Amino acid sequence: MNKRLVLLRAQTRPEWLDYNGHVRDAYYLLVFSHAVDALMERIGMDAAARERGGHTLYTAELHLRYLREIRQQAELRVEGRLLDHDAKRLRLYLSLHRDEEADAAAGCELMLLNVDPEQGRSAPFSAPVRQSLDALARRQAGQPWPEDCGRRIEMR
Q1: Which residue from 3, 36, 38, 114 has the fewest beta carbons nearer than 10 Å?
Q2: CATH, residue 44
C-alpha cells in the first residue's frame, strides 16, 4: 500500500523569485499553507463543514527548514505526514519537492489547533474529523520519522 500523501501540486511563479532567481523564503510557507488547506479538505474540514460546525485549524507553531534551492519554472509537490494527534491538536510534517525529485527542497513541521472561532478557543475535533485523522494515522503507521522533526516543537 502506498503511504505517501500528496497534498498539493503547484508551479513556481515569476513574482515568487528574488534577485538571485530563487524562490523567496516567504513563498515556501505560502505553498505549505495551501497544503494545510488541502489537508483540511481531506479530513472533512472543508468550507461546507466549517460553515456547518464553525471549526477550523489555526497554526500554533511551525518550524520551516530550507534544504535546497528552488529556482524559476519548477513544478512543486507537497507531501504530508501526520505525526501525532489528540482531541484538539495535530502535529504534521510537510515536505516540499521540486519536480519529481525524492529529496525534499524544504520541510515544515507544524502544530495545528482545532478552534471554534465563535467561542474564541480551542475545541475537540468533530467525530468525523477525528475518524479521518485516526484513519490517516493508521495508513501512515510504520513510516520512518522525518529526519528534521522534533526541533523545538513538542506536544506536552
Answers
A1: 3
A2: 3.10.129.10
Considering its fold, how many domains does the chain have in total?
Answer: 1
Nearest CA-CA partner of 100 in 69, 74, 81, 67? 74
* 3-class SS letters over 41-64: HHCCCCHHHHHHHCCEEEEEEEEE
Question: Per the domain annotation, does 84 fall within a domain?
Answer: yes
Residue 101 lies inside a defined structural domain of this protein: yes
Of 31, 32, 23, whose CA–CA distance to 62 is shortest? 32
Say if CB 39 and CB 92 are below 8 A apart. Answer: yes
Q: What is the pLDDT of the chain when averaged over all its residues?
A: 91
DSSP annotation of 70? -
SS3 66: strand
Q: Look at 28-32, 64-68, 87-91, 118-122 and tell me which has the smallest mean pLDDT.
A: 118-122
pLDDT, tens digit (0-9, with 9 covering 90-100), for 42-69: 999 988 877 787 789 999 999 999 999 9
Helix (H, G, I), strand (E, B) or coil at 108: strand
DSSP H or E stretch at residue 113 = strand 106-116
